[in-house]
Amino acid sequence: MAITGPDSMAELASTIHEEVQAKANAMRLPAADFAQRTRMFAQHSTALERAQHNFIREARTVLAAPLR
Fold it and tell me: Which residues of 3-22 are buried (b: 16+ CB within 10 A; e: fewer)?
């Protein structure tokens, strides 16, 4: 993304990557009990869906922009 797309798209891709990691790690946290891990997993699932939605919306905008 950083090579072929605008910086804003690279940042959105990075956010998706971070949320995927956070979602995966939510169930691995030894300090949290199962209910806490489940809540964290759900929160990160929602955040990941939001990040993916934002990426797709912005990608459509970038792809629809006229060439300069």
Answer: eeeeeebeebbebbeebeeb
Q: Is the pLDDT of residue 9 over 60?
A: yes
Place of tokens 């919306």: 57
Q: State the number of CA atoms in the 13 A half-sphere of 20 facing the CB.
A: 7
Q: The whole model's pTM is what?
A: 0.81
Q: What are phi and psi of 27, to 5 degrees?
A: -90, -5
Q: How far apart are CA 16 and CA 68, in angstroms?
A: 28
Decide: 19 and 48 in contact? Cβ < 8 Å.
yes
- Tell me which DSSP letter residue 7 carries: H
H/E stretch holding 38: helix 34-64
